[in-house]
Request: fold
Amino acid sequence: MKSTTDLNMVNAYIPGRARMEPATEAMIARRDALLGPAYRLMYEHPLHIVRGEGAWLIDPQGRRYLDVYNNVTSLGHCHPAVSEAICTQVRTLATNTRYLHDTILELAERLLATVQETDLAHLMLTCSGSEANDLAYRIAKVRTGGTGVIVTDTAYHGITDAVSQFSPSLGASVDLGPHVRLVPAPRLYHAEGADLAERFTHDVEAAIADLRRHGIKPAALIVDSLFTSDGILPEPAGLLKGAVDAIKRAGGLFIADEVQPGFGRTGEYMWGFQRHGLSPDIVTMGKPMGNGQPIAGLLASADALAEFGKNSRYFNTFAGNTVSCAAALAVLETIEREKLMQHAAKIGVLLRDGIADLATRHQSIGDVRGAGMFVGVELVLDRASREPDRRRTSQVVNRMRDKGILLSACAQGHNVLKIRPPLILSAEQAGMVINALDEALAETLHDV
Ligand code: PMP
Reply:
């Protein structure tokens, strides 16, 4: 089975399309020669960045770009508290999980305290979100004796061999496994009044039945609870409940992929699944966990992990190292100390309201949605048909970059602007995003 969308190409630099400064061209050529053909750069005019500071990225000439896309450095670039924690720890001790050390235990206690309403009981650490999902899938296979995986149609869960097989947004050139079933993401804007919870439950039940018909036992339903590659689909909250019950009834696990919505991004809750009132068997996390330090991992219930732990030895050289754990602890402390969830909720509303206001002037804005500091703006050819305006979306993304505002796009139709600023974004900076978007939409009107 092949997937149909390649989200990696939504906003990629295409060689030869735009004229470039000779210095930039030379750097791209050098990079291509050294790194080979698999890497992609963003934007028609790729950026060379030498420094980061709060919500800003800075190029060699000192030009500042407002970064409203990078949710790795979720507390802002080079946050002093995290930088300090990393430096102190790296000067003291950098070791692995084969020695006793307090920091990893404090980190586990703090993370588990955020999910007290669930059965999640243990923390395991990795270096990337892909590795966390890979490990979650291994655990699910051992626990259930099955291999079947159900994901949404434009989901991204990572790059390992196993995980890329259930990441349809990697595009048609990456095979989906025969044990993988896709269900339509719940697109409220296109639902025409249908009960999305009922439809999603039904689709997951049908996927389970189809797996069984092919002799495949279900292992897991894996969902990014904000559907961030599918187009940022936060509503209706509670929609996943029936589908989660269905996979559990079928003997499979529910894995919440919190790599994007986790660590307070949705404003209301620390984790996206909490907006849906769910109790996952496994929660995977990554990206913002170390504010740039490579740390990721999973929380699992005792029941999910028991069999795996009995039979498998888990050691991962860098994962859980003292420096990464110190960074992750500093991230959690900073979210709390700076009240960043409340801030994300407040500024997220400003962003959404401001962009919704633009929709009164710009017919191409079909829908504005989001939760906390995650905003999606769906651009359409006309509001009646709701047909995606992929070309305009790409033009707006590049025009915004030229105006010094960095964002990107996602969704099956490649037509949803993806705005994902650091949680520290100020009201003034949110205003800059809205004003620039107003201009970019006006300026691209006649290019279409
Ligand atoms: N899951 C989701 C939802 C993601 O968005 C990503 C990364 N974009 C991953 C998993 C993989 O994380 P990583 O790039 O750290 O391997």
